[in-house]
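Most newcomers find our protein records easier to grasp once they have seen one. A learned vocabulary of local backbone shapes supplies the integers on the structure line. Here is such a record, shown just as it appears in the course material:
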Amino acid sequence: MSYSAIKNRRTSIPVKVGHVTVGGGAPVVVQSMTNTDTADAEATAKQTAALARAGSELVRITVDREESAKAVPHIREKLDRMGVNVPLVGDFHYNGHTLLNDHPACAEALAKYRINPGNVGFREKKDRNFAMMVETAIRFDRPVRIGVNWGSLDNALLTELMDQNAKSAEPMDVREVMHEAVVQSGLMSAERAVELGLAKDKILISAKCSEVQDLIAVYRSLAARCDYALHLGLTEAGMGSKGIVASTAALAVLLQEGIGDTIRISLTPEPGGDRTREVIVAQEILQTMGIRSFAPMVIACPGCGRTTSTTFQELAQDIQSYIRTRMPDWQRDYPGFETLSLAVMGCIVNGPGESKHADIGISLPGTGELPAAPIFIDGKKAMTIRGENLSQQFKDIVEDYVKGRWG
């Protein structure tokens, strides 16, 4: 299934971020962000490489002080030596104008700058600081993301809109006023950047909120009022299943409506957890919606009283791990393999039927069934396997199929 088959996609201005195109009909881009101290160039390069290898097509890094800015060109050099060409995005707050101005090597090493209009400066300094960052972007021919955050809104703008609303004959709900403040902050900042000389194809906008319905309302409004490329993400999504569910609930609605050119899943990692989890979740959202293909999909039944054996659970987990392990080699040798679909089913009820819908399916014996597992390939029963090593037999079948179809 293609993205266009789901919904007509919103037309946006394409933006080049390094070698990656965002918007303009390009595939929805997956990005992520490091949580290392950027001043530690070794640790940041290592985590950036891990995120890139997991599938992050852009990686954002915090640039918050002199030591961080000085480390950025070294991080870029380390990545280049590792053969990791992922574009780096600099995340700036409060002092970005100073850091970019004082460290041109940092400005050059970054592929994009993120500016938060809510904290780029205050009162009379706001426009001057914003202008300094935009002028640096123009000088180095870099795009800028105008990144509005619900939690760091421009207080002057919000106060002005609240006052106007209070005087209105038909005042809006306070939350609606906040939605409007988020949207206006992004649009007005983009307009100001254009006035300063930044081309429209150098501007992306994000308008992040931490509540699902707020995010949907804000992006619908933003999408209807501009043609800038949009970065989607539920900010402060949370930890574990809560963060995954909340992000999916919000982004799936917007993506289904054709809104969004690049996404990030902002998961709070478990202590010592793997940062690449957020990349995999982003990929799975896009793939399960039929928008992009990143890795073969494994369909597996949830289990019931007919599947008291854990064989199908263990096989599904083993096959999923096997695919992840084989992906680097398959990506090199078998382009197109990402669309492969596998079914690992636990009994005769849905097993054969679901297996026929997949490229390769196995219907394992349920409770009381004969100890045999029919294999279906391209919708037809191809063979039956038996024995203790079902997992290895199935892997061999998958390996032969990939080689035969995409080799």
Notes: The longest strand covers residues 144-149. The chain has a mean pLDDT of 94.
